[in-house]
Amino acid sequence: MKTFFRLLSFAKPYTRFTVPYFFLTLISTLFGLINIAFILPILDLLFNATKSLDQIPYPEAAFSVAYFKGLLDYSTAWLIAHHGKSTTLIFISAFLISTNFLTNAFKYLALTVNIRLRATVIYNMRTRLFNKIVNMDVGFFSSQRKGDLMSRMTNDLAEIENSVIGTLQVFFRDPFTLAIWLTAMFAIQWQLMVLTLSILPIAGLGVSIISKKLKKQSAESQKSSGHILSLIDEAISGIRIIKGFVAEQFIFNRFNAQGQYYANVTKSMGYKRELASPITEVMGIAIVSAILFIGGNLVFEGKLDASTFFMVIIGFYKILEPLKGIASSFTSIQTGISAGNRLFEILDADVKVQSPESHKTLSTFNKSIQLKNISFKYHETEVLKNINIEIPKGKLIALVGPSGGGKSTLVDLIPRFYDPAFGTVEIDGVDIKEFDLHSLRSHIGIVTQESILFNDTIFNNIAFGLPNITQADVERAARIANAHEFIIKTDEGYETSIGERGSKLSGGQRQRLSIARAVLKNPDILILDEATSALDNESEKLVQEALNNLMKERTSIVIAHRLSTIRHADVILVLDKGEIKEKGTHEELMALQGIYFGLHQHASGTGGIITE
């Protein structure tokens, strides 16, 4: 139940929900009890069992069932004596309608409290979960399926809302209802209630067994749901490859297999979940049969009034209703607890890269970036080995080398997407771990090989994350990035929506928007990760010109795919198997006739593209 109470913690402070819900439910239940009580005089009237006024003494005041029943009998007899049976029946019926209205009115008000509770808990959970995911370090996402994360944000939250938060009304309402009706029924006929309670634990045992089996299957179901979402995401993202390789049937078979597994688990869960109510129902009928036999004989022997016996039967059904609700909730809640555990796996995950509690603010970048004795591992695989680099302010440093050499990992250490296993990254002599992450990254602009754009307008993509940006600011950045001309030719100019991941634009256009975004940020440090490698020659020319504009008077670290773009770099570093094998200008490295020379010779026959 630890998970259950952790889920409820998102509703704090509890009193704003529990106090009004308790009183509204209590009042509704009491009016419901009065409803049933007023059926008794109606039955007595219909079956001519009502005594005359002179046969019924006015009851002595006492807080007991006998007093209230005596008061009801006396009042009924008085009404009959003064107004007749027909008028009395009308009066009692009108009173019954009024109390029924009040019962349902207070029940509705209690439900509105429960609705606010559900909305509050789910809103708080979704906000907290999304905030945690966004603040996780980049390394966290390399070991997570995107579809599984989406499933936790959607399916698991929906499961919690339906099976945990949705059953809260059962735990707040039904115990009160049960207690009130049990108290009333014990006061009316305690022997029959003892019989009722002696049989109920048998039904509870069956429900408990079902609940335990449901918990395990629920975890399997939610994991499978996440896998299905991953398959859908992969299929949509890779639809061109699927069709190009005529792999529709292959991808369908993968999806169908997972879908069939999910369907089987869901069916099995449904069978078990729905078994709780019939078990309670059957046990209820068994108890009713026992009550009918024993209570009927008491009526035959004159030890119990027929109307009172009828009240006991109705009261038992009023007891059975919350019992069924509680039994069903215990089975249903297991799936929600399993979903809650999956969410808490995310919420409890350590954020490995975060600002220190006592941090410094990087206000200006003045001298250099230094990477000292840097080593880095992905799990157990060593990617970088004893790297030592100094990048003076205003210089252009290029990283080249075969794929898998660690170039992207190296530049990812500068904005602290990862922390090195050993060594330090310093800016102006201060370890970047001492800086507030926001202030550190505000000085860094990034343009990657894949243009990361959002399903929004051109304006909002360029101004992404920056406050108080004007139209003039965005247009200036677009002109520097060679993007203004194509932007004004779109349907709505800067207010044109570019679609999912910028799908309405060409690769070169997307990349120029990414550059415009970096221009607008105006960073001191610029990281270009193969920013032109995926472009055709014409687009590359425009993008490279835009990059040259962007790099002016900035400290730039460039991962080069085309060697022709970095000949003018101040220093070129050749990374191979996680180590810096060569270092120097283009001319110096060519003179060494080492790795760089070999790369250049290969690239000469491929338009400047490294082919290793």
Overview of this structure, please?
The protein has 612 residues and is α/β, with parallel strands linked by helices. It has three domains: 2-347, Up-down Bundle (ABC transporter transmembrane region fold); 362-443 and 526-534 and 554-612, P-loop containing nucleotide triphosphate hydrolases (Rossmann fold); 450-522, P-loop containing nucleotide triphosphate hydrolases (Rossmann fold, 3-Layer(aba) Sandwich). Helix content is 62%, strand content 10%. It has 19 helices and ten strands. The strands form two sheets. The chain has a six-stranded mixed sheet with strand order 6-7-8-3-9-10. A four-stranded antiparallel sheet has the order 2-1-4-5, with no helix packed on it. Strand 9 (571-576) and strand 10 (579-584) form a beta hairpin. Helix 6 runs antiparallel to helix 7 and helix 14 (471-480) crosses helix 16 (507-521). The longest helix has 71 residues, at 65-135. The chain is elongated. The two termini are 57 Å apart.
What are the key terms here?
10 strands; 62% helix; Rossmann fold; elongated; 3 domains; single chain; ABC transporter transmembrane region fold; 6-stranded mixed β-sheet; 10% strand; alpha/beta; 19 helices; 4-stranded antiparallel β-sheet; 612 residues
The CATH architecture classification of the largest domain is Up-down Bundle
Percentage of residues assigned to helices: 55-70%
- The radius of gyration is 37 Å
The total count of helices amounts to 19
Overall number of domains: 3
Percent of residues in beta strands: 5-15%
Gap between N and C termini, in Å? 57 Å
Quaternary:
single chain
Instruction: Label the structural class.
Output: alpha/beta
Order of helices and strands: HHHHHHHHHHEEEHEEHEHHHHEHEEEHH
pLDDT < 50 runs, ≥5 residues: none
Mean pLDDT: 79
CATH classification, class level of the largest domain: Mainly Alpha
Tell me the total number of β-strands. Answer: 10
The description of the largest β-sheet is: 6 strands, mixed
Strand order of the largest sheet: 6-7-8-3-9-10
According to CATH, the fold-level topology of the largest domain is ABC transporter transmembrane region fold
